[in-house]
Amino acid sequence: MSHRAVIPLTLALIGIQVGTIGAQSGGLSIKRTYTKPGDPLISLEMSSLIERLPPSGYHPVRVKIINDSTIDRTWNFSFVSSDSSFGEPNRLRSNFSVICNATSVAGVDLIIPVVSVLNTRASKQLESILDVTVRPSAPLPQSSDRLTTEMAQEKSKIWPSVIYSEKIQTLNGNALDKATALHLYGAPSGGGGGWRSQAEFGGGFLAKSMPDDWRAYVGYDACLLTDLEWNELPAGARNALRKWNRLGGTLIIYTTNSGTNLNTLGFGGNAAGASVSDSGWGATLLKPLPGNGLL
Question: 179 and 60 in one domain?
Answer without folding.
Answer: no
